[in-house]
Amino acid sequence: MGAERTLNATTGYTIFREQQATLLPQLIGDVVFVYGSTVLALSYAAGITLLAQHHRGRRFLAPLGATGRMALTVYLTGPVMLGTLFYGFAFGNAFRLGPSEVVGYAVLFFAIDVLFAVWWMKRFRFGPMEWLWRSLTYMKFQSIRIKEQSS
After folding, report:
1. CA 109 from chain center: how many Å?
2. What is the pLDDT tens value at each position of the chain, 151 positions in all?
3. Distance (Å, rounded) from C-alpha 146 to C-alpha 127?
4. How many CA within 13 A on the CB side of residue 114?
5. How much is the pTM?
6. Where in the chain are the domains?
């Protein structure tokens, strides 16, 4: 981020607006942005890995287990929720929101996905799309309900 600010101050390079910089500063800025994003993603992964190594961290990360068990459903709801927010068939906020607001909405929508996944997995064996996928694969409806435990 510091490199991007320096490039902006000295050459007019910007990430999310119309470019005013010449070709070389654009190239340098884009490389810094791409590799910086990669380093940031790897740092998040390392942080999650470190959290998972401790008891409190595992408790904190436990809701993500439900999300992982219905990954296809979560994967498909992202574009539906964000598409509804951004495109003309619904709210049409594309190009009206800045990067921080987009990240805020993405975090909010993922939190909704996690809460839904935890609620759903307490009641059912598979996520809705996972159930459909299994049913189509085996060409017969799969049992989705969690069987009652006999005492």
Report:
1. 8
2. 677 677 767 777 776 666 676 778 777 777 887 888 889 999 999 999 999 999 999 999 999 999 999 999 999 998 888 888 888 777 777 778 877 888 898 899 999 999 999 999 999 999 999 999 999 999 999 998 886 544 4
3. 12
4. 12
5. 0.69
6. 1-60, 62-151
